[in-house]
Amino acid sequence: MAKTIISTDKAPAAIGTYSQAVKVGNTVYISGQIPLDPNTMEVCSQDFAAQATQVFENLKAVAEASGGSLADAVKLNISMTDLSNFPTINEIMATYIAEPYPARAAVGVAALPKAVQVEIEAILHLDT
Fold first, then answer.
1. Under CATH, domain 3-125 is a member of which superfamily?
2. 6 φ, ψ to 5°?
3. Averages of pLDDT over each 10 residues, the chain, 128 residues
């Protein structure tokens, strides 16, 4: 199957050798999003909740650019530098994705790009 590269200016531009997302058939693989403001390419805040919200906004923008939405998410991989933020990420995620929730992994990591506190990648399955 052919690969389609997904790109939108409503999410941060790639800061490395990767695409914002790649669509193969009905599956969309969204690269890890960090809390960069797409207009300034700067970290949005030092507050974890603000960072998590920006990450979901970035994921939402890429999902919509692919022709889908976060409702199409079947898998999320969440990396956090402090797992005590687990309840906060759950609360924010629930405002962007309704039940039934996608499969998910949440792992603690020592560091993330640009010293942010959270990064999330997603896999979507589109009905069309």
1. RutC-like (3.30.1330.40)
2. -105, 135
3. 95 95 98 98 98 98 98 98 98 97 98 98 94
